[in-house]
Specification:
about 450 residues; mainly alpha; globular
Length: about 450
């Protein structure tokens, strides 16, 4: 038996929705979307399905299933998809942009503070405590993805092989992804029961309120969401042209071998490698940004990941920090314009990282709206997901090495960092503590230790 709620607490479902009202929500979401993709998706579900009734449970999950199949940040892609479904192309573009822009501004400001004042004792002490907490976060990510995706011995073998390939043989991440996809494809033929499905996603419970939604289960797809080959080719040409124009402009202004052009190429490839979430592509970003291009150091990479965990927006926004530090370090506009260099580099990285996400949604959305059946992971994606676990474990080992032995084996263990890291891991894995609370507590612990010692 259900008790009726007051009208103010349970508003009637909308009969129409203006673009300005939707944009106010997407902007608000951009500033409060903490908690990683799971938290961001849960927030959208609560607001759009349960409270505002802009879209039904079934249609929301249908869109989410498609986004889960794509490379890139699924929460941002889901916002883009829903914005497109509600208000055509510009609705999708603006929803996706507003989901990202607040994070870009915050990350840029924090990156400037880090580069300009990172050697101040209080700032240095805070980051000293954050590093072991980040290691615990990566370990938690490996556990979370592994517990969901390693469901049989074939998956475990792929994960172990991926870890060995990147840890011992330093195999590039794209090659690991392609090999895992091939193994999954073959495994799907030979062992369909083991490779036929994929990891699920927590749906946050079934929606019990049967009030009609603006876009309900049986609402026909809007005219703009119906597939046509004419629209398909137009979207394809426009997206490729935008990428080519941006890359060509950078090459014409700064030279084909300039740092900004290198960033454009690199972060485009990174965007196409983000199967399994941001943690899966971080080893690739590390290989390129730290080892190959030397835009930043390993320690700076860890600090950037910590900032990404404590700011709203997708975790993949850590690439904006990487690019900011790279632009600053390389002084691409001269030693007197370091802030400008970092800001432009961060904007370039953000553009090339998220452009493919808009492309996938605007190009594939009409296909998805043509059927409302449940989508499943293919066998190659099951193989990729298993390999992702191995590369995340490698990232955890890499971070742990630099935290526990910051001066190498001969320099001895950093016991305070070990204690902070273990405490953070217990808080995250055992007590399911809030990520932001753990990072802030670890940072304050590091600050106290630096002030006392």
């Amino acid at each position: 038996m259900h008790t009726a709620l007051p009208a103010t607490a349970d508003p009637a479902p909308p009969t129409s929705l203006s673009l300005s009202e939707a944009l106010r929500f997407w902007l608000k979401l951009g500033f409060i979307s903490f908690g990683g993709p799971a938290g961001q998706i849960a927030l959208m579900h609560e607001e759009l399905v349960d409270r505002r009734r802009w879209i039904s449970e079934k249609r929301f999950l249908h869109a989410l299933n498609y986004c889960m199949l794509l490379p890139g940040p699924e929460a941002q892609q889901l916002a883009t998809y829903l914005g497109w479904l509600l208000h055509r192309t510009w609705g999708g573009v603006l929803a996706g942009m507003l989901f990202v822009l607040p994070s870009l501004f915050i990350i840029t400001a924090l990156a400037w503070l880090y580069m300009a004042h990172g050697d101040v004792p209080m700032v240095a002490g805070f980051f000293y405590g954050i590093k072991p907490a980040v290691t615990a976060l990566v370990a938690q990510a490996a556990y979370r993805v592994g517990s969901r995706s390693l469901t049989n011995r074939w998956h475990w073998c792929i994960a172990v092989a991926a870890f060995a390939a990147i840890f011992a043989l330093n195999v590039p991440f794209p090659l690991i992804v392609m090999a895992a996809a091939m193994v999954g494809f073959i495994g799907g033929k030979l062992r369909p029961a083991a490779f036929g499905g994929g990891a699920g996603h927590a749906k946050g419970g079934q929606h019990q309120d049967m009030r009609p939604a603006l876009i309900d289960d049986d609402t026909p797809a809007p005219q703009h969401a119906r597939f046509s080959w004419r629209r398909f080719w137009r979207v394809l040409v426009i997206c490729v042209a935008l990428w080519a124009m941006a890359m060509g402009s950078l090459a014409a202004l700064y030279g084909p071998h300039s740092t900004l052009v290198q960033m454009g190429w690199f972060f485009t490839k990174a965007a196409l490698m983000t199967f399994g979430g941001a943690y899966a592509v971080l080893p690739y970003v590390y290989q390129g940004a730290v080892e190959h291009f030397q835009w930043l150091t390993a320690v700076q990479m860890m600090d950037g990941l910590a900032l990404g965990e404590t700011t709203p927006g997708p975790l993949i926004m850590v690439v904006s920090f990487v690019a900011f530090v790279g632009g600053w370090t390389k002084a691409i506009f001269g030693s007197d314009s370091l802030l400008l260099a970092g800001t432009v580099a961060a904007a370039v990285a953000t553009f090339f990282t998220f452009l493919p996400s808009f492309f996938f949604i605007l190009l594939g959305g009409p296909f998805i709206e043509s059927t409302h059946g449940n989508l499943k992971f293919t066998a190659p994606l099951a193989g990729i997901t298993a390999a992702v676990v191995g590369v995340i474990v490698n990232l955890a080992v890499f971070f742990a090495w630099h935290v526990i032995w910051p001066r190498g084996l001969t320099g001895g263990m950093d016991w305070p960092s070990v204690v902070i890291g273990i405490a953070a891991a217990i808080a995250l894995l055992r007590f399911k503590a809030n990520v932001i609370h753990v990072i802030v507590a670890a940072g304050l612990a590091g600050l106290a230790l630096r002030l006392l010692i």
